[in-house]
Write a structure and sequence with these properties.
The chain has about 290 residues and is of the alpha/beta class. It contains ten helices and 13 strands. The strands form four sheets. The chain has a seven-stranded parallel beta sheet with strand order 3-2-1-4-5-6-11, sandwiched between helices. Strands 7-10 form a two-stranded parallel sheet. Helix 1 packs across helix 7, helix 4 packs parallel to helix 5 and helix 6 packs across helix 8. The protein is globular.
Length: about 290
């Protein structure tokens, strides 16, 4: 599909939404929605059905890419009613206001699974273990009830760190370079995936006109300890100061042990943009150095 589409990206002032909007705007007419006023962003409270209806009437999108969400699992666990208003109710409001023929790409999560039987296929039954995962599973059900919509599940994302934030892999890079004794988790597995690769996959699926459930995840799963060792290998540094821990840090929201997503269907469809761990690390290093 080469013609320009009208696309509304929610949460476009956030980490993922900004990258998605930038990627799609090269070819398409993108409206960026955010909750707080910022340059180039349409302010709309997605928890308010009247405000959402007005936004959709004004923009008449061919596609909505719904990135907006409360993503911190512990916040969702401790504030479930408030988190549900954005994580579930906004999805319902957006679907209700879609113009005829409009479609949604809903951004879901590996946290819809309990992490006991990885890697997970797109058709596997969801089984969340925390409020955030339940919210994503509920919204998935709303989206899948309509024809032509997309659900794309993603894992932990990495990329250029937002201002004042040390991201998932950045912390590991700093730990390795510091050379100071540190103990890191060796229980919970994650699949760090570059944010630019995810945005490119969204564009790929939208322009193909796909529907259904897809998994978009880098081909590498590891605990924080295993990932830190890989960071050290790429950097060419010794990691003997990094020690593994089998003690899971108690937190309000339970985490799945290994909710790795199988992205074979996406690759089989022709998308070849999912970088492996070494390439992701090198990309982050280049972005940090400004090269």
């Amino acid at each position: 599909m080469s013609s320009s589409l009208r696309i509304l990206v929610t949460g476009a002032s956030g980490f993922l939404g900004r990258q998605v909007a930038d990627t799609l705007s090269h070819q398409h007419q993108v409206t960026r929605q955010g909750f707080r006023r910022a340059e180039g962003v349409e302010v709309c409270d997605l928890r308010d059905p009247v405000a959402v209806a007005g936004l959709l009437e004004a923009t008449s999108p061919d596609w909505i890419v719904h990135c907006a969400a409360y993503r911190e699992p512990d916040f969702c666990e401790l504030n479930e009613a408030e988190a549900r208003r954005l994580n579930v109710d906004s999805t319902r409001h957006l679907l209700a206001g879609l113009p005829a023929g409009g479609r949604m790409l809903f951004v879901s999560s590996d946290y819809v699974f309990d992490g006991t039987h990885p890697p997970y296929q797109p058709g596997d039954a969801v089984c969340p273990v925390n409020a955030y995962g339940r919210h994503k599973a509920e919204s998935e059900a709303l989206v899948r009830a309509g024809a032509g919509h997309l659900v794309v599940r993603i894992p932990v994302l990495v990329g250029p760190d937002p201002a004042g934030v040390r991201g998932f892999l950045t912390q590991m890079i700093d730990d390795v370079r510091a050379g100071k004794p540190v103990t890191v988790d060796n229980v919970l597995a994650r699949c760090p995936t570059h944010i630019a690769d995810v945005a490119a996959a969204f564009r790929f699926l939208i322009e193909r006109g796909d529907s259904g459930v897809w998994h978009c995840s880098a081909p590498f799963a590891g605990t924080r300890y295993a990932l830190t060792l890989e960071v050290a290998r790429v950097l060419g540094l010794n990691a003997s100061h990094v020690q593994p821990s089998r003690d899971v840090i108690p937190r309000p929201a339970r985490r799945p042990v290994d909710a790795s997503l199988d992205a074979a269907a996406l690759l089989a469809a022709g998308f070849l943009g999912l970088r492996g761990m070494p390439a992701v690390i090198r990309a982050l290093l280049e972005q940090r150095s400004g090269t």
